[in-house]
Write a structure and sequence with these properties.
Bound molecules: zinc ion
Number of strands: 22
Largest sheet: 10 strands, mixed
Length: 548
């Protein structure tokens, strides 16, 4: 029965070596990918990207960006953060460590410290020197990060032969992914410099390719133009006119509407930091990613390299306008073209099928509460001052040190058990969804429900005594910009649900509909590459993502 497809005897004998050789690639590709891992893994984080942007803007995307990643790759459609607060530094740390703040220690961007009577920045490190700039704002390092990342583990796996680099406009988004032992992180300094820099944590001077890149002065060029819609106006999805009461402008003294003449704004005294709120902040990030791949020679040999790219401009703009703005859709349509440009570049330089890309977000973002409230939606603003008064009216005036977004700090001499009593009182506030005492979270074995989000974001040494969550749709008034603009940080789906895409070598095409956690990404990448998981990872490999 098999004879019909076998060549006749003479041909079979002559062609035998050729026939075996032709089977070889098939045989190799049948082996698990970890035995022949990709030459380069590129991690892309889009700051504040909600998963529904993919659905809303789909018809405006081109064939080679998000659509290509989804049509040819793996799309986790119900992927979530499972801790609070959903902010940028914890988000990037969680993606790359495969765990949550309770274990990796990046509890928020600006933790409060009682001894300082104030906050400190989680990526600030006064023991390191700025490199490539004199700006003290470049004194940054990952020393507060307590768990290893994919970059750390990849370096160990390959005896430090891998090239592992993080880059972004925001320093925390470049630093957290490469961990403490990755090769380098590069981030943007605005002002009149408009340069990418690093700190002495990583190296003593900028590499030559980066100096040349900075010398091209791209930020000034990108800001010498007008920002108008890329597509005809009628193709955009927005329930609001461009001029509406819920948006803040990208610079003082102008209307929050397109077109925006960026060159006039520059002449009016706006510095090169302005770039961060425009689509060209993302363009510059792609330019830098490509320069890094070329300059460092990434993806050129069989030792896997890791490039962690984070697009920050989507968050800078999203805070100002909220997710329904015309400007936001325009930025995502242009970002789609940036993803296409990056993939096209990798096809050429590393080779189709030789690299793997994953893409996600560090958190989502809320609708502008005032907008939903005006539609009779359940949303609003709660001031920290009113929460403090609520607790004071219930007898806690003497013991409260500080009320922050999501946390209450008690004075050190507060009697034992006060945290539970304060949590009880706060739970009864009509706009509070959940309040739990730290002493309970410490011993909690990750219960279900909202308390689980608090427990997974809680590290006693770095957090307050009572942690709380506002009701869905609510923002702390101090973050709300007087009814304009928005924020994130909660346990509600608009902040926790993010896209998780995998594409390229070793990835099985298809959709994953089962709920997954952001902490599953690092274990999945570790399995793909055949290496140890980051040391504190508690996510699981998502089997549907990996090709068999
Ligand atoms: Zn943000």
């Amino acid at each position: 029965m098999l004879g019909w497809f076998l060549p006749d005897r003479a041909l079979r004998l002559k062609a035998l070596p050729v026939w075996f050789a032709s089977l070889l690639p098939a045989f190799l590709s049948a082996q698990p990918v970890w035995q022949h891992p990709p030459k380069l893994v590129v991690g892309i984080v889009v700051d504040q990207m909600r998963v529904d942007y993919l659905y809303r803007y789909w018809d405006n995307f081109g064939p080679g960006g998000f659509r290509r990643m989804i049509n040819e790759g793996s799309f986790q459609r119900d992927a979530h953060y499972d801790y609070v607060p959903t902010y940028t530094a914890p988000g990037h740390a969680s993606i790359y460590t495969g765990t949550t703040p309770a274990r990796h220690g990046i509890v928020t961007n600006y933790p409060y410290r009682r001894e300082l009577k104030g906050t400190y920045y989680i990526a600030k490190d006064t023991t390191v020197a700025p490199v490539g700039t004199d700006d003290p704002a470049a004194r940054r390092s990952p020393y507060q990060l307590l768990a290893s990342t994919l970059a750390d583990e990849l370096e160990l796996r390959t005896d430090h032969r891998s090239i592992t680099i993080g880059l972004a406009l925001k320093d925390r988004s470049a630093i957290m992914p490469v961990g403490r032992t990755g090769d380098a992180a590069y981030w943007y300094v605005g002002g009149d410099e408009g340069r990418f820099v690093t700190s002495s944590w990583y190296r003593g001077q900028l590499p030559g390719w980066l100096t040349s890149f900075n010398d091209r002065h791209l930020p000034a060029q990108y800001l010498d133009q007008t920002w108008d819609l890329l597509l005809p106006r009628e193709r955009y999805h927005t329930p609001l006119p461009d001029d509406n009461p819920y948006e803040l402008p990208i610079a003082k003294g102008i209307a929050p509407t397109l077109p925006i003449d960026l060159s006039t704004l520059r002449k009016a005294g706006n510095d090169l930091g302005l770039l961060a709120c425009t689509p060209w902040g993302n363009t510059l990030t792609t330019d830098l990613a490509m320069a890094a791949v070329e300059g460092e020679g990434m993806g050129r040999d069989d030792v896997t390299d890791l490039l962690a790219v984070s697009y920050s401009s989507t968050d800078e703009l999203g805070h100002l306008t909220g997710p329904r703005a015309l400007e936001v859709e325009d930025m995502y349509i242009r970002l789609d073209r940036e993803v296409e440009r990056l993939l096209g570049f990798l096809d050429k330089v590393v080779g189709i099928g030789e690299y793997t890309v994953f893409l996600t977000a560090d958190h989502g973002g809320a609708d502008v509460p005032a907008y939903l409230r005006d539609l009779k939606g359940g949303a609003g603003y709660t001031s920290l001052e009113s929460l403090r008064r609520w607790m004071e009216a219930r007898g806690f005036a003497e013991v409260i040190d500080k009320v922050r977004s999501g946390q209450v700090f008690l004075k050190p001499d507060a009697p034992q058990g006060t945290d539970a009593a304060v949590a009880d009182a706060l739970s009864q506030h009509p706009e509070v969804a959940c309040a739990v005492a730290g002493s309970r979270l410490r011993s909690m074995d990750e219960d279900g429900g909202l308390a689980r989000f608090l427990a997974r974001g809680y590290m006693p040494q770095r957090c307050g005594d009572v942690l709380f969550l506002l009701r869905p749709g609510f923002l702390v008034e101090e973050d709300g910009g007087g009814g304009k603009g928005t924020s994130h940080g909660t346990a509600w789906n608009y902040d926790t649900q993010v896209p998780v895409l995998f594409f390229g070598k070793g990835i099985a095409k298809g959709e994953v509909l089962q709920r997954t956690s952001i902490t599953d990404m690092a274990p999945t990448v570790s399995a793909l590459l055949g290496m140890a998981m980051p040391n504190a990872a508690d996510g699981r490999v998502v089997p549907e993502v990996l090709s068999k």
